[in-house]
Amino acid sequence: MTDGRFLEDLKVGDVHRSSTGRTITQTDNIWFSLLINNTNPIHIDQHYAAQAEFGRPLVSSILSIGVVTGLMVPDTSQNGFALGWDEITLPNPLFEGDTLYADSEVVDVRESRSRQGWGSSKSGSAASSRTARSCS
Hints:
This protein is of the alpha+beta class. It has helices at 26-35, 41-44, 46-51, 61-76; strands at residues 15-17, 22-23, 99-111, 119-129.
């Protein structure tokens, strides 16, 4: 596979924006919420959500995190794999119809100490919606 970045392409301080965005639909939100057994009505019940603080359904946080992770793949793990996350904050809600974009900043790159020919990188990531609110 030749798409995506390799370890030698990553430089500390580089910032990459996802080349595409992803619009979250009502169907995405409902199906994903039910798939993960999240039956909180704020995600799946239009009538309930209309009476709640934001007046409309909120996108499941786990769906938001998953989409941002996927948007970052070409710049962070297309030719490797993600080992995890160490801090996630969700300062603003995401709504059905919002389009997510992801920015990844390379904060560390190093050769593996235990696997010759391998290496690791660490990226700081942020997401924004089409309304330019920071979502993660």
